[in-house]
Amino acid sequence: MKITGLRTTPLLIPYVTAYHMTQGPRTEASVVLVEVETDTGLIGIGESLARPSAALITDALEACADLVIGQNPFAVDAVIEAVYRRLVSVPGADMDRMARLIVAGLDMALWDVAGQAAGQPVHAMMGGAVHSHIQYFAFVDGDSPEAIAEEARRAVDQGIEVIYVKLGRGNEMDVACTAAIRAAIGDKRLRIDANEAWDVMTAIRMIQRLEPYDLEFVEQPVSSRSLDAMRQVKEAVNVPLAADQAIHSPHDVYAYCRAQAADVIVLGPHEAGGLGQLRKAAAVAEAAGVRICIHGATESGITTVANHHAALTFPNIDDGNQIMCRFINDDLISSPDLTLKDGKLPVFDGPGFGIGLDRDAIARAQERIR
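RESULT FIELD:
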């Protein structure tokens, strides 16, 4: 079996409602659908985030198509490595993180088509599921502490055990939101994400103020550019810390684990450079006795399914992972069913990712781009 085509399609998907981040509200997901065609008629499906633009992603992948077409799709790591190497070869430029973002969708599509060809789910191709399900958290949001608390209460009523909220809205607002959520959810687990909003002094002071609300962890409280800043905060507070924006590769995982600068690693395929690199990162964290929490981004259900297959194979997967397709108003897939039951998704057993594309939704997403 050989790869005969590589197709990229920019898509724009609206959210049901905006969600808030330190960097501002997000109202839509801009992605690039990546499809790998083979001489057997099988088509593998993946997606890359369209950052900073869809044109950059599509142009980069098209410039590397000669490294993909004609190759055996089972050679996932070799194909991805070849494309990655071409992308980072720009003299004088540090293209590592951008290259990882670009190749993520291609990596997914290769895993998908390999699984289809073998008649096996992707998690089986990766060594097999070691869990009967993966658990996800509720990402609660709103314009006021009261609105956020009400959403958290509804999530608990749906059987979700872990509640997660993004802060960085101003110190007093952050305290008010945290207090309101804790009052609403009782003894359920609460995580907060400052998204790099604080400097070291502010992070230490804010985490100490919020500690009475029984935080499970604080995600990326300081700039992702400074491992030392993260370690300094960690040594000063009694609440566990999770590293997110600071982590983009197995090398980053090693550095943070070696420095004991984080208690949890938050990482997804778009940062890591696909599922292959995500698996390597998870193995590094496992060696250090640290959990991997799957990171979500401005993505569709395609990434959710890909993440889920990989997570099923990680012995050290967290029990409260991020799922972003709940924000999507017009998702790109018709199957599998991504409705959480008590905050969980089961093992998916279809060949490859088992994704059914909704071609009408894709057409609408294409029209939004136009």
